[in-house]
Amino acid sequence: MTSAALALTGCLSSGSSGNDDRIRIGISLPLTGDFSEPGKGVRRGYEAWADYVNSRGGLLGRQVELVILDDQSNADRVAADYEKLINQDGADLVFGPFSTRLVIPAAQVAKDYGFLFVEPAGAAEEVFNQGFDNLFYAAPAIAEDHYNYLAEAILAMPPDQRPETAAYAAMDDPFAQGTAYGLKEKLAAAGIRTVVDEVYPPNTTDFGSIAAKIADSRAELVVGGTQYQDAVNLIVALRQLGYQPAMAAFSTAPTNPEFPRAIGEQTAGILSPTGYTPKAAFPSNQEFVAHYTKMHGTEPNEDEANAWTTGQVVAAAVQAVGCADPDPECQRKLIDWLHNNEVDTVVGKLRWDQTGKPQGAHLIQQYVDGRIQIVLPESAKEANLIHPKPTW
Q1: N or C: at which end does the chain have fewer Cβ atoms within 10 angstroms?
Q2: CA pair distance 174, 128, nearest whole angstrom
């Protein structure tokens, strides 16, 4: 079955490839399969960005058209999709997919054709070890740096308050493991003992044995390198065993609006890194939140924000160098400009090293008074860090 194409053209009807009146942007996303939920969020962000740009005259005076294919969360299919987008569908530019597993094969195709490749969700360290000089990650930090502010806060605690032991459970996924082990590396180097270190397959649903190991260890800190459902299942299993850590942190899941209900509203004190908050005072973020909310009736989350940021980054390069076409000379100008410039986005100012790695850290959120709020760093906090964690 062929991938379905979705074209978004603002107020214009769909046109054929090669139409000089439009800038065609080719994208492959996991709209079905393992990564379909965040993939759909990225699509919403891309579509909102295109609608916003088109309502303001487009890029270089041309309307933007998105051509979106469904890679079904499959690495082989995503590579074929980008081949098709570039060779058959007449893409002038490409945006990246969701997930490290899909970003790497997609970025390789883009590199083979000399295309700029800005991506919203390939944060694992291995993405930046492939030799991609055309790749830029449109977020504040890679996975291993997501917990930097939390690590700093823990290590700054008085010795009698600082956790002495930590338990780690991570999905066998480059991003999920990267978040957990980035924190583990920093804490272990400071003498915080690892008493549990478990890695589980992505399709794991029964967390009874892993939860039992963590509960038996009585670790003061529990860290989940998680996506969504795995975090929910692990937390429920830990609660059923009566385990009460002094600190609990899980990647990705706590920022999902469905999370509190999924774990029975027992969220107090749960921590999570995030690269985005709708409350951020960056000027373009206020415009983004207003436009997205008008389209969808709800505020955007991190997936939508990273997609919008991808559009902002590419647009900044396009406007700076004055071209948006598949010609290798144009694509090289776009790549070189981003290597040498900073871009204002909805997640703040972004700058990259030569591997496309952003030079920043994620905010740390915590459930305080029933709401997830920024607690770290001090300069961005909406509430004070709660430690030790209330019972769940």
Answers
A1: N
A2: 12
Tell me 385's DSSP state.
Answer: P
Q: Is the pLDDT of residue 6 over 80?
A: no
137-177 pLDDT, tens digit each: 999 999 999 999 999 999 999 999 999 999 999 999 988 99
At 314, list the tokens.
């590419």
| Distance separating alpha carbons of residues 53 and 273, to the nearest angstrom | 29
Mean predicted confidence (pLDDT) in 354-376: 93
Residue 158, C-beta contacts closer than 8 angstroms, at least 6 positions apart: none
CB of 95 closer than 8 Å to CB of 46: yes
DSSP string, 309-360: HHHHHHHHHHHHHT--SS-HHHHHHHHHHHHT--EEETTEEE-B-TTS-BS-
Length of the chain: 392
pLDDT > 70? residue 3: no
d(CA 84, CA 121): 21
* Overall pTM > 0.70: yes
* H helical segments located in 113-170: 148-155
d(CA 85, CA 79): 10
Yes or no: say if 379 and 239 are a contact pair by the CB < 8 Å rule: no
Does residue 253 carry a pLDDT above 50? yes
Cα separation, 292 vs 297, in Å, equals: 8
Sheet containing 221-225: give its strands across: 193-200, 165-171, 221-225, 247-250, 271-274, 363-368, 371-376
Closest among 352, 347, 358 to 280, alpha carbons compared = 347
Burial class from Cβ neighbours inside 10 Å (0-12, 13-18, 19+) for residue 354 reads exposed
The three-class DSSP label of residue 166 is strand
- Do residues 121 and 98 lie in contact, with contact meaning Cβ atoms separated by under 8 Å? yes
Other Cβ atoms less than 10 A from the Cβ of 74: the count is 20
Instruction: Please give the mean pLDDT across all residues of the chain.
Output: 93
pLDDT at 20: 62
